[in-house]
Amino acid sequence: MSDHVVEQEIKHEQAVVDRIYARLDAAIESARALQTEGYARARLGNEGGLVERDAIVFQAGKRLASLNAAHEGLVFGRLDHRDAAIRYIGRLGLRDEDRDVLLVDWRAPAAAVFYQATGQDPAGVVRRRVLQSVSDQVIGVEDDLLDAENAPDDMVVVGEGALFAALAKSRDRSMHSVVATIQREQDDAIRSPHRGVTLIHGGPGTGKTVVALHRAAYLLYTDRRRYEGGGVLVVGPNAVFMAYIERVLPSLGETSVSLRALGEVVEGVDATRHDVPRVAVIKGSARMRRVLARTARGPRPDAPTSFRIFYRDDVLRLDAHELRRLRRDLLDRWHRRNRVAPHVDEELIDLLWGKVAGDRALGRGKDEFARTLHGDRSFVDFVRGWWPVVDAVDVLGWLSDRDRLAADAGDILSPAEIDDLVESLSADGFSVEDVPLLDELRYLVGEAPEPEADEDPLADLYDETVPELSTVDDRWGAVPDRSGARPTASIEDDGYAHVLVDEAQDLTPMQWRMIGRRGRHASWTVVGDAAQSSWPLTQEAVSARDEALSGLEQRAFRLSTNYRNSREIYELAANLARTHIPAADLPNAVRETGVEPVVREVAAPDLADDVAAAVTRAAGQVDGTVGVVVPVGHRHEVEAWLGERDARRIPVLEALDTKGLEFDALVVVQPDKIVDEADVGVRTLYVVLTRATLRLEIVGTTHRWQS
Fold first, then answer.
1. CA-CA distances (angstroms) from residue 320 to 257, 324, 345, 536?
2. Which residues make beta-bridge pairs with 524?
3. Alpha helices of 41-125 — where are they, by DSSP H?
4. 209, 213, 219, 221: CA torsion to nearest 10
5. Strands (DSSP E) along 196-330, which ranges?
6. Percent of the chain having pLDDT more than 90?
7. By CB neighbour count within 10 A (0-12 exposed, 13-18 middle, 19+ buried), where does 559 fall?
8. What's the rounded Cα separation, in Å, for the pair 9 and 323?
9. Strand pairing partners for 125?
10. pLDDT digits (tens, 9 = 90+) for 489-512
11. CATH number for the 183-260+492-559 domain, one of 3.40.50.300, 2.60.40.1180, 3.20.20.70, 3.40.640.10?
C-alpha cells in the first residue's frame, strides 16, 4: 500500500478526532462554568447555599478530573459495521450538539464488540481500526479486516493488525493502557459479572495485570454509585510496581481508585524494606496469628502485679492471681482490650469493695468508696499502669523482648525462630512483613470507646500527653512508630466495594488476613500465577485466601497467550519451568524476533566489566528500557560497575522487585545466587527471565540453574 493512501486515511481520521476534541474542550468549559456557578452559591448567605455550593463544586470537580484525564489518546478505535454504521471508541463517551453519539466509552456495552469480534465471529463488524495518537494528533492506523465478504470494494485496510503493532512498541517505565488491543479471552474476564470473585490466572506476559485494571475501570463505569461510593482498592507487590501501573486507571478516565503496595495497605505506614527470607517466612506464617493473639491479651511490660490501699479501718489488697483472673474475665467479656479501658476502674472498685469488711467503711456505702478511690493518686496510677490504652505499635514492640516472645510463642516457634524474630523486631523502621502484623494487632486491641467526660472520672488518665484523644487511631497519630510513620486509619472504615489483588500468588497468610478485612463486603478480582510464587508455604496461603473469600461465588479465567516475550526468550524461561516447577502454566508466546537469548559464563575478576559491556550493548540495541537484575544486596555494587547512566531507562533492581514489570532488554547478573537466595529461588529466576520482551543476556560466574 502506498504511503499516500495511508496519509489520506490518517488525514481523514484526524478530521474526525479534531471534531471530538472540540467537543471535549466544550465539555471542559461547561464543567468549569458549573464549578464557577457552584462557588457563586456561597453568596446566598444561608446554609442551603453552602450545601449547594459544596455539592455542585464537588460534582464539577469530578467531571473536570475525568475529562482532563482522558485527554491523552482520547480516541483509539473505530468500528465499520456491515450496515455501514461507523462508531468511534474512546476513553469516555461524548455527544455532539444534537445529542448524537460522537464517541462510545470503551466500557459501554456498545463497545464490547470492539474487543470480542473475531474473524471467525465478526459480530457484524467488517473492519476494526486502531488509531495511534500522540496527544490529539493521529500518527498512524492499524486495521483488522474481520469480514472480507461484506467489505466494500473501496475499503482501505492498513497494517498487520493492532495487536502486533502494540507488541512491537518499546516499553518505558510506566504501563500504558492497551484498551485498543485487548483480545477476546481478556475481554471476557474484564466484563465478567460484578458480584463474587473473578480469578484471573495465566503464565507470564498474558496481560493479567492490564486485564485486571481494565476490569476495575469497567466496574466503575457500569455501577459507579456502588464502586465509587464504596471505593476500589488495588493492591500490588511493591512500590516499584505501583509506580509502573499508576498511569493506567487515570488514562482510562478513573481517578477514584486507591493504589497500595503491600507495605502501604495500613494507612499511615509506608514500608519498603523486606526482611531476609527466613524471617519473612516467620512473620508471614499463619502461626503469627496465635502469637499476636496471646500478646494482645497479655499485660503491658512492667505492669503492676499487685495493689494495696488503706481505706478506713481496712487494708485492701489485690494479688497477682486475682488480677490475672480479672484480666481473663474482662477480655472474655469485651474481647478487645481497648474496649475494656473505660470500665477498668469500675471493675477494680467492685473487686475491692468486696473486700471491705469494717462497719465504719461499709456504713459509708459503695458510692463514697468509689469517690475516695477516684481521688486517690495511687489508685489512678495503678489503673493507668495496669490497663492503659495501647496501640499496635506498642504491642508489636513488646515482642522485641526475648523473654516476652518466648513466653507467648515458646510452643509455637522454635528457639532459633524466636531469636530471628527478636532481632528483626529490634531493628529501626518497619518492614513490609511487619505491616500485616500491625494490622492484626490493630484489630486485636481495638479502638478505645470515646469516654464521656461527665460520666467517666478517669477520662483523662489514659494518656496525659495527648489531651482529648478518644480512639486508639487518634493515639497512633500522636505516637510515632519505629519508622516515624503514624498509622491513622479507623478499623471501622476499611471496607471497600471492590478489591483487586495483583501477584496474589505471593501473598502470605498474614497479608491475606490484612487485605481480607478490607474486602469483607466487596467483590474481588484476584490475579496470579502459581508458578511465579515467592511464598514457600503454599497450603497455608491457600487456606488464608479461602478464608478471605469465604462464601463468595468464584469465576476463573485463564489467559493463554504470552504477548510480552519473544518466543525465543520465553522458550528459555519455559525450559527452566518444565524442569523445576511442577504443573507450571506455560502460555503460548506468539511473537518471534529471530534473536536468541545469550548466556555468558565469565571469570569472577571479569564479572564487573562483562556486566557493564552487556548493559552498554543492550542499550544500543533497543530504544526502550534496559533492566539490570541482581541478587539481594548487590544493587549498589552493580550500580557502581555501570557508572553514570540514565537510571530511569536503565534501572538496577533486585529480583523480587521485578514482579509485574517488563523491559525491552534485560541483563541478569549471577542467576545462581538469585536461585540460592530462598527455597523458591528458582521460581524467582523464572519471573526474572520473563521480564524481557526483545533481548535477554545472562551473565554469571556459574550457571547451575540450567542443569
1. 51, 6, 17, 43
2. 197, 499
3. 47-69, 112-116
4. -150
5. 197-202, 232-236, 257-261, 307-311, 314-318
6. 52
7. buried
8. 85
9. 81
10. 455 445 899 999 999 999 999 999
11. 3.40.50.300
- Mean predicted confidence (pLDDT) in 255-261: 83
Tell me the pLDDT tens digit for each residue of 190-200.
889 889 999 99
Half-sphere exposure of 334 (CA within 13 A, CB side): 22
Give the separation between CA 292 and CA 650, rounded to whole angstroms: 42
Domain ranges, ordered by start, for the chain: 3-159, 183-260+492-559, 277-478, 564-706
Please state at what angle helix 509-517 crosses helix 287-297, rounded to 10 degrees.
Answer: 60
The pLDDT of 311-323, averaged and rounded, is: 89
CB 409 within 8 A of CB 291: yes
Query: What is residue 185's three-state secondary structure?
Result: helix
* Cβ neighbourhood burial of 193 (10 Å; 0-12, 13-18, 19+): exposed
pLDDT for 477 equals 34
Q: How far apart are CA 669 and CA 701, in angstroms?
A: 9
Contact 703, 671 (CB under 8 A): yes
Alpha-carbon distance of 435 to 630, in angstroms, equals 26
Which phi and psi (to 5°) does residue 442 adopt? -60, -40
Identify the CA nearest to 106 among candidates 168, 169, 191. 191
Look at residue 621 and give its three-state secondary structure. Answer: helix
- Kindly report which listed range (388-392, 459-463, 558-562, 628-632) carries the lowest average pLDDT score: 459-463
Q: Are strands 125-134 and 137-145 parallel, antiparallel or unpaired?
A: antiparallel
Q: Residue 637: pLDDT band by 50, 70, 90 thresholds?
A: very high
Domains 183-260+492-559 and 564-706 share a fold: yes
Residue 26 grid cell:
466544550
Strand order in the sheet with 125-134: 94-95, 101-105, 86-90, 75-81, 125-134, 137-145
How many CB atoms sit inside 10 A of residue 550's CB? 9
What is the average per-residue pLDDT within 208-227?
Answer: 84
At 120, list the grid cell. 471467525
pLDDT at 108: 87
N residues, the chain: 707
Quickly list DSSP for 119-151: SS--TTEEEEEEEEEETTEEEEEEEEE--GGG-
Q: Where are the beta strands (DSSP E) in 289-362?
A: 307-311, 314-318
SS3 call for 475: helix
Cα–Cα distance for residue pair 244/242, rounded to 1 Å = 5
Q: Which amino acid is at 498?
A: H
User: CA dihedral in degrees (639, 641, 646, 648; nearest 10)?
Assistant: -30
C-alpha cell read off for 394: 506498642
CATH number for domain 564-706, candidates 3.90.190.20, 3.40.50.300, 3.30.450.20, 3.30.930.10? 3.40.50.300
Q: Give the cell for residue 112.
A: 464490547
DSSP-based three-state secondary structure for 76: strand
